[in-house]
């Protein structure tokens, strides 16, 4: 399958998943409660009607046999009530960038970034690459999450750890939400490079190992990365409420520095500093780990 074919196939699956989540009442279509519908959600004909396109045109889109124009994509985004992340994903899947092969060279953390990780001695920080691969981390991040160094390079992936590492599962009292969000961000990555063999391998592996991953991946939900707040139940220092931020690396836009901080003066801030002290004592001095 070519990159364009892969994009079109995913586009069709995404459109089907989104229309199945909408009811006629939600989009203002008449619906008789006494009549039983054969399918859940909207029919293809109803989406075509709302988008002012022919049913045949829309059917071809879902079947991957037609490429949509930008105006049609905009209309479908409104009809299907897509949020900003889903709209961006829809345009990624339109196939406009599929003909340009993406670089799959091994990612290396810049020396300047390693020094920055060293300096963030009281702030958990990790560098994520493509597919949420964990490229580098500092000691307090290892103390917060897990000892990344004990995990083989090819298994050192954040989404995999969320689903497969019991210690990390136990950190999150709202594990379902964290797992769904990380998976949705991974699906956005898949839209950018659908032929990435390592990503295909990762999705296949997790689909076989975890029924939740398999079910949620099939739902075709997407999300863009952005700042937020995480609550963690750490086995040593207790409950932490941390704000996380993303910083994209200029020299390699596929790398992101993620930091977690606590409100100054809060119990979480004090507990985080305690964790940082313990991490520094454990290694002797704050040195960042790398993949």
TrEMBL record:
Annotated ranges, domain HTH cro/C1-type: 41-87
Q: Gene3D superfamilies under this entry? A: 3.30.450.180, lambda repressor-like DNA-binding domains
**Per its UniProt record, what PROSITE patterns does this chain match?**
HTH_CROC1 (PS50943)
**Which is an annotated Pfam family here?**
MLTR_LBD
**Top-level taxon:** Bacteria
**What PANTHER family does the annotation carry?**
BLL4672 PROTEIN (PTHR35010:SF2), BLL4672 PROTEIN-RELATED (PTHR35010)
Q: What is this protein called?
A: Helix-turn-helix transcriptional regulator
């Amino acid at each position: 399958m070519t990159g364009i074919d892969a994009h079109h196939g995913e586009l069709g699956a995404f459109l089907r998943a989104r229309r199945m989540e909408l009811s006629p009442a939600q989009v203002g279509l008449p619906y008789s409660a006494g009549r039983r519908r054969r399918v859940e959600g909207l029919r293809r004909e109803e989406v075509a009607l709302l988008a002012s396109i022919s049913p045949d045109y829309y059917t071809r889109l879902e079947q991957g046999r037609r490429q949509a124009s930008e105006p049609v994509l905009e209309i479908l985004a409104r009809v299907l009530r897509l949020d900003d992340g889903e709209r961006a994903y829809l345009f990624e899947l339109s196939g406009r960038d599929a003909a340009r092969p993406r670089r799959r060279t091994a990612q290396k953390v810049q020396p300047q970034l390693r020094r920055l990780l060293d300096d963030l001695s009281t702030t958990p920080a990790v560098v994520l690459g493509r597919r949420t691969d964990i490229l580098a981390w500092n000691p307090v991040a290892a103390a917060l999450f897990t000892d990344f160094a004990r995990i083989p390079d090819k298994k050192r992936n954040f989404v995999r750890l969320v689903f497969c590492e019991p210690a990390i599962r136990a950190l999150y009292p709202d594990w379902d939400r964290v797992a769904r969000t990380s998976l949705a961000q991974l699906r956005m990555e898949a839209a950018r490079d659908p032929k990435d063999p390592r990503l295909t391998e990762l999705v296949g592996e997790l689909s076989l190992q975890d029924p939740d991953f398999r079910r949620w991946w099939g739902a075709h939900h997407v999300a863009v990365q952005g700042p937020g707040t995480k609550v963690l139940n750490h086995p040593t220092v207790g409950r932490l409420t941390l704000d996380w931020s993303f910083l994209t690396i200029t020299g390699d836009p596929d790398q992101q520095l993620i930091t977690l901080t606590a409100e100054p003066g809060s119990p979480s801030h004090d507990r985080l500093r305690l964790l940082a002290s313990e991490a520094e004592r454990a290694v002797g001095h704050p040195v960042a780990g790398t993949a």
